[in-house]
């Protein structure tokens, strides 16, 4: 399997909110295997800004990523995280293919 699409959610955690936020993020990652086309999710802490975390999702295709956006679970996560975080930044990246060239 090749990674053809990636989504990221950069989260700046507020003081004293780490535990609740981490529980929410780890529960989300634990459900990643059930989404069609999902190759996995990972959570990485910034080495320069210890209050910043990056949640990354890896997808077989743009269609699988779009279906994930449409199912509402990511939106629910953003809403839950937004209540605990100081800031959130979302991005998506697509592989360059002949059809997208």
UniProtKB/TrEMBL annotation:
Taxonomic source organism: Pseudomonas shahriarae
GO molecular function: monooxygenase activity
SUPFAM superfamilies for the chain: Dimeric alpha+beta barrel (SSF54909)
InterPro entries named in the record: ABM_dom, Dimeric_a/b-barrel
Keyword check for Cytoplasm: no
Pfam families linked: ABM
Record-linked Gene3D superfamilies: 3.30.70.100
Keywords: Monooxygenase, Oxidoreductase
Name under which the protein is recorded: Antibiotic biosynthesis monooxygenase
Domain ABM: 10-70
């Amino acid at each position: 399997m090749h990674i053809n699409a990636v989504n990221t959610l950069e989260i700046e955690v507020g003081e004293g909110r780490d535990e609740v936020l981490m529980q929410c993020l780890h529960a989300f990652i634990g459900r990643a295997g059930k989404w069609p086309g999902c190759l996995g999710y990972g959570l990485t802490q910034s080495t320069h800004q210890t209050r910043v975390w990056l949640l990354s999702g890896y997808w077989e295709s743009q269609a699988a990523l779009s279906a994930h956006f449409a199912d509402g679970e990511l939106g629910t996560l953003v809403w839950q995280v937004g209540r605990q975080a100081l800031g959130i930044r979302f991005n998506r990246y697509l592989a360059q293919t002949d059809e997208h060239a």
